[in-house]
Amino acid sequence: MKSAAFDYAKPKALSEALALLAEAGEDARLIAGGQTLLATLNLRLSEPSVLIDISHLDELKGISVIGEQLRIGALVTHTEIEDSKLIAQHAPLLKAAVPHIAHRAIRNLGTWGGSLAYGDPAAEWPACSLALNATMLIAGPAGERRISAQDFFIDLYTTSLEPDEILVATEFPIASSNQVFYFHELARRHGDYAVAGLALVANKVGNVLSNCTFTFFSVGATPVMATKAQALIDGKPLNEDLIASAVAAARAEIDAIADITNSAETKRHLIGVLLERGLKHLIA
Amino acid sequence: MELNGEQLIAAPIPDVWKGLNDIDVLAKSIPGCEEISRISPEEIHAKVMFKIGPVRARFAGKLLLSDVIPDQSCSMAFEGSGGAAGFAKGRSRVELKLVDGGTLISYTTEASIGGKLGQIGGRLISASAKKIADDFFQRFAKELGGEVLPLESDAQAE
Fold first, then answer.
1. Which domains occur in chain A, in start order?
2. Which of A38, A93, A216, B149 has its CB surrounded by the most CB atoms within 10 Å?
3. Is A70 helix (H, G, I), strand (E, B) or coil?
4. Which of A130, A127, A169 is nearest to A148 (CA)?
């Protein structure tokens, strides 16, 4: 199958892209890497009237450190993240997560911002941005606004982005020297959508974890934090009993949703498996 | 796919029943509803634009009501076609109950989805169906001038 006919525009500046988007309204789609969009167009699951290609917008490019913040432009590809020294140094969680994203050919084209704006509940970047307490920088007709990752992901494939807005970049605090992390996902084959996944970040002093975030993905309509389990672990010496109670708390507090092959019970079980492995990895 | 759930709406049973049978209320409540018409007391035709994630497909469908007991319950059979995107068909049963604070709507739905939508959308079809159902009841409650009250157990899609 091939896609239905559409118009194509390639603006050279963010302001031009915003004007095109405002003019075309909801029938327009932005295209960056196109790794999800093109497949759905070719299957005619969606037939937009115009594609606005944002791949030439310099405002959306590059990885940089600004003070204590790491900025990742929306157009940065998964491969750029994989190969970046700045990422390895300041956001090691992302370096650990990136090999789980599909396959290299897809990572060469797919983008950080595309994954965030799409908001697939099984995707790695929404979960990582939540785990790292990221802030989204969004441009719209009224100027730029900032919103935390916590408020950005609203529901299944639904973010706080309005149809006339463009995600420009994200910023998050660079990793402190005592930051520890664990990233893992359970999938039937490497590169498949995860059945369940975990992005865990904390500060570690001795065997005490603090500022923990346990972000699970592919278990609900959005990535979700196990806040009760986090509170149980926070500030206490980590041991087997504490891990067991956090595992039970995470299983109880997350409202898992079934997918086509895995029941909610399976997902709930895997939430505990992942958290137990992650916490044990951190005290090993 | 099965989708079963309960929604508590802060409105009396006769209002809820009337709303569920009023195509103007339904037109405003069904997310993406573009056209709706009643062919006979038991048959409703509708055109709906579904927008979830990658999918933006226009479905034309019909709904057949049966076992209608006013203010209590009804069954419905539905089928819809979204052209190249695929099709959906199934059955649903809806019951109304008087409870503290308003009307409890319980629904059980069995549906099968085919075509491209089944292959591509299949992974998240339950979550998508739950989102559409939740959106519907939010809008429906607003149309009735009430609100959806939180329940202890939420809709569970299997």
1. 7-53 (3.30.43.10), 58-173 (3.30.465.10), 183-283 (3.30.390.50)
2. A216
3. strand
4. A130
Instruction: Specify the amino acid at residue A189.
Output: R
Reduced 3-state DSSP string for A146-173: EEEHHHHEEECCEECCCCCCEEEEEEEE
Look at the domain B2-149 and name its fold. Alpha-D-Glucose-1,6-Bisphosphate; Chain A, domain 4 (3.30.530)
| Whether B127 and A156 lie within 8 Å, measured CB to CB | yes
User: Which residues of chain A have a pLDDT value below 70?
Assistant: none
pLDDT in tens, B98-140: 998 899 999 999 888 887 776 665 677 778 888 888 899 999 9
Contact yes or no for A197/A271 (Cβ under 8 A): no
Average pLDDT of chain B is: 86
Compare all CA atoms of chain B with the CA of A3 and give the residue at the minimum distance. Answer: B84
**Nearest residue of chain B to residue A120 (CA atoms):** B53
Percentage of the residues of chain B whose pLDDT score is greater than 70 = 92
Which token pair is A230? 């986090």
- Token digits of residue B58: 């226009």
Q: Across the interface, do B57 and A156 touch by the CB < 8 Å criterion? A: no
Residues in chain A: 284
pLDDT at A214: 98
**B64–chain A Cβ distance below 8 A for any pair:** no
Nearest CA of chain B to the CA of A208: how many Å?
Answer: 35
ipTM above 0.90, yes or no: no
